[in-house]
Structure formats: C-alpha cells, structure tokens
Design a protein that fits this description.
By secondary structure, this protein is an alpha+beta fold. It has eight helices and 19 strands.
Length: 327
C-alpha cells in the first residue's frame, strides 16, 4: 500500500470517481438537494456503488461499515475491505476507519465527513434504487470537491467475496463482448448443454417462467424466445392479449457457461453473470446471485425480484400463449 499517494487516500479514499471544483451554488442546480441527518440515516442496511463499477460500501445498522475496493486501484488489491464506524452528524455523513484498517492500509483514524446531495425528491427518496448521491468533502463555508458518487444501491450487504472478484471482472468483460456482437458463440437454449450445476438450477428457475423485477416481467421460453412487458403495459390492455403483445417487446435469449444474455432488436441487449449457489457475497444468502452487465448485483428473491409461474402472474393467458413461440 506504500506505493499509493497517501494524501489522495486521506482526501477521498477508495471510492473517488472524479475530482472537480464546484460552485457553492451547485446545490440549487441540476435538481440536487442536500439531505438531512434523518435521510442519511436511511443509508443503514444498504450497500451503495456506481453503475459499471464494482467498488462499494455497506452501512450496517449497528453503526459499522465495510468499504471495498474492486476497480483496480493502483497498489490496492481487489477485494480489499476497510472497516470502521459511521454516523450522520450536523447534516453530514461521517465515517472513521478502525485501528486495524488504519494500520493495515496506512490511513488515519480521524473522521472523514461529507455533505451529501441527491437528485431524489423528498416524497420519493430512496425508492427506485437508481437515485444519485454525491458526497462533497466539507470546506468552510462552501462545498468542496466531489469525493464519491453513487447511483445504485441495494438493501442488505452486497459486499463481494474477494475470492470471486476476478471471476466477476472477467464475466463483465465477456458479457460486454457478447453484447457488442449481439450473440453468444456456441451458446445453447437447452438445459442439458449447460455443464455447471448452478446454471442448470438457474435454467429450471428461469425458463418457461417469469423473472420479475418490481413491476417488470421477463419471460424466457424453452424455444429461445425472450419477452418483456411491464405491469402498465398489461393493465392498459384491458385483458386483450394482442394488445399486451404489442405493448411488450420480443427478442431471443442464449446461455453459455454461467452467462445468460437476452437480445432485442436495435442492438438492445442485457446479460447476467450467475454465481455458484451460495457464493459471491461475504454474507450467506438463499436463492440465485447474479451480476448484471452494468455491475448491478442482486439475489433473485430479494429486492422485489424473483421467479414465478405464468399462472401466478396478473396475465396468465399472455404468458401461456408464448410457451411454444419461437423467436
């Protein structure tokens, strides 16, 4: 760790996305507002990160935190975890590294405090998982520089198991290749072609069933068809299946190794990297753990996600009509 510039570590440490001078009136611009102690305290039991980045920080409800570096910082081993305590104080988010972290990573045990701005209105604060949070280093009488920027978060501890960081990084690179090509070479839509047992389990949970994320439904049939629709598209169809089909989007899906991708027209595509059962996080979990192509991490069955049968949806006739449709 000695090769790292210690002044940089002390100024922003670990999660610095970029540094830029800002005007003190920035809080009134771009619909960002400063949040209070009460709103900062809602960070507890949540993990924050930035889209397309694997660095993350988890604020535990017991007042401790875990900050993890996964994005190839110079001289810092991926998966490194910094621990300590955090609090909301005087409308600032403050955290202090513990003695063990300070000794191991040559940093200070003095508090780091940040003014936090968000673009989330008070009436919908922390409800979409995609609000932006900007943490500014505190300087007398004005906002300082942006130290951290987060625009994704999840309930519970989503700190990655260091043993799997390289695996996830390689998976993200592979998914990017597949998405650019709009195809997975030597892929399959058949369960028996999948060699990893956890992918066979994922196949059983996913194929001919609906993968839902909040009010969005994704359907993968065993003919390779992918169909997407949200609940609004179903509701405004008034039970007419043809209208539902026109309100949704059709495409195709493929699997290879532990990657599942689905492709729509117009070069639109998504992929998910599936981890072995019970692996990939530092906490135990039930269900399927996936890393989305954006770096978003989720356990299927948590955070309003999961898998259900067509007959358990609000539109069983729609999804049953697609069971034997080819892409």
């Amino acid at each position: 760790m000695s090769s790292i510039n210690k002044s940089v570590i002390c100024a922003a440490f670990a999660f610095i996305i970029f540094l830029s001078a800002v005007n003190p009136s920035f809080a009134q611009n771009n619909s960002f507002r400063r949040i209070s102690d009460a709103e900062i305290n809602r960070f507890m039991d949540h993990t924050f990160w930035k889209i397309h980045k694997l660095d993350r920080i988890y604020f535990n409800s017991d007042g401790t935190f875990i900050q993890q570096l996964n994005d190839d910082w110079d001289g810092v081993e991926n998966g490194s975890m910094y621990t300590g305590t955090w609090e909301a104080k005087n409308s600032e988010l403050c955290w202090t590294y513990d003695a063990q972290t300070a000794e191991k990573y040559a940093t200070t045990t003095n508090p780091f405090c940040y003014t936090v701005l968000t673009n989330s209105p008070a009436d919908s604060y922390m409800t979409t998982h995609m609000e932006s949070f900007r943490l500014y280093s505190t300087e007398p009488g004005q906002l300082g520089t942006i130290a951290f920027e987060w625009n994704r978060y999840a309930y519970d501890n989503y700190v990655l198991d260091p043993e799997y960081i390289e695996t996830v990084q390689n998976g993200l690179k592979q998914m990017a290749t597949y998405r650019r090509a709009g195809n997975i070479p030597s892929s399959t839509i058949r369960k028996e072609k999948l060699t990893d047992p956890w992918m066979q389990n994922y196949y059983d949970e996913t194929v001919n069933r609906i993968f839902f994320i909040a009010d969005q439904s994704m359907f993968f049939n065993d003919k390779g068809l992918y169909f997407f629709i949200n609940e609004n598209g179903i509701n405004k169809s008034n039970g007419d299946i043809e209208n539902m089909l026109s309100n949704g989007s059709k495409g195709r899906w493929q699997m290879k190794d532990n990657i599942h991708c689905w492709f729509l027209s117009g070069n639109r595509s998504s992929c998910e990297f599936i981890m072995p059962k019970g692996k990939g996080l530092i906490r135990p979990y039930d269900g399927i753990f996936g890393v989305f192509y954006t770096g978003f991490t989720r356990v299927h069955g948590e955070m309003a996600t999961g898998h259900i049968d067509p007959n358990d949806t609000s539109a069983p006739e729609l999804f049953n009509s697609l069971l034997n449709v080819a892409p």
